[in-house]
Design brief:
The chain is mainly beta and 303 residues long. 14% of the residues lie in helices and 40% in strands. The chain has 5 helices and 19 strands. β5 and β6 form a beta hairpin.
Length: 303
């Protein structure tokens, strides 16, 4: 495989993996619509914080020129909690560590968060894309599939046993790029008038099937127990906003049967700068900034 082919493949992979949505957009929309239904029989109680993430420490990734957020000083750089397939896919083009879709956010010399960006790509003779949306997620990148099966190379989720996640609160800023375009110049696809960011959280069962959710089934896999999804509008310039995303059970019976003592579960947290990035659609210059993410677990009965 020659160098130009590798570059084009990386671009295609980066764009496809940016959003990490399922392969069938209509199926994904139908799945997301169920989030609004909720459950009316939830027992009252007190939610408890189980995990809090900040993005002030970053770690260099082996054999790459980019860094990713680190959750601990002794974290293995080859097995980080946070991943970015868009960064991995873009590695053949990046000229410096600051070129990537996902980079540290700095105020002066201090790192204060994560900067997730939609950047300009490269489209040539029907290959690649002019729009590459950035994505940061908990999980890993299966590099063996990055070229042949890019959607399947995004492996979403990290082990989660603290409780049953009930809500995700995050501190963020979002700005939309000036013009939404199709990265492959297609004119037969209606474009949104403005770009949006995305935040989602998916809790799923791996007791019997240890495989990861990926870009083909992130919102539709039957193992999903609890999920939340929101499309983010621009925030007031220069100001941080806080959003509380409620995670809704997908099935009351399966939700009630969750057993943290005998079962195995993963939690996938996904953030992206362009909500239709997987379709090569987005606005160059769209940017989602993250400062803090907090996970709170299912309400516990009051004493």
């Amino acid at each position: 495989m020659n160098a130009s082919h590798l570059i084009l493949t990386a671009l295609i992979s980066g764009s496809l993996l940016a959003l990490g949505s399922c392969a069938d957009p209509m199926a994904e929309k139908e799945a997301i619509s169920h989030l609004r239904q909720g459950l009316e029989n939830r027992k009252p109680g007190v939610v408890t914080t189980s995990q809090r993430f900040t993005f002030t420490r970053w770690i260099a990734i082996p054999k790459m020129t980019f860094t990713l957020p680190s959750i601990a000083e002794d974290e293995d750089p080859a097995l980080t909690y946070w991943s970015s397939a868009s960064n991995t896919g873009y590695s053949a083009l990046a000229q410096s560590p600051t070129d990537y879709p996902v980079v540290p956010l700095k105020e002066g010399e201090q790192v204060v968060g994560a900067q997730i960006r939609t950047i300009k790509g490269f489209y040539f003779f029907g290959f690649g894309t002019n729009v590459i949306a950035g994505a940061l997620y908990s999980g890993r990148v299966n590099r063996a599939n990055l070229v042949a099966k890019p959607l399947e190379s995004t492996e979403f989720g990290q082990p989660y046993s603290a409780g049953v996640p009930d809500e995700m609160t995050f501190v963020y800023q979002y700005q939309a790029g000036d013009k939404v375009i199709h990265g492959q110049n297609k004119t037969n696809i209606p474009l949104p008038t403005s770009d949006k960011g995305v935040a989602s959280a998916i809790f799923y069962d791996v007791t019997q099937d240890d495989s990861y959710l990926n870009g083909t089934n992130l919102h539709t896999d039957p193992r999903i127990l609890v999920r939340g999804y929101v499309e983010l509008e621009p925030t007031e310039a220069g100001k941080w906003a806080t959003y509380m995303l409620k995670l809704e059970p997908t099935d009351p019976a399966r939700y009630a049967a969750i057993d943290l003592k005998t079962g195995k579960y993963r939690l996938a947290l996904v953030f992206t700068s362009s909500f239709r990035g997987a379709e090569y659609i987005g606005a160059v210059g769209s940017e989602l900034r993250l400062k803090e993410v907090t996970i709170k677990d299912r309400p516990k009965k009051k004493d």
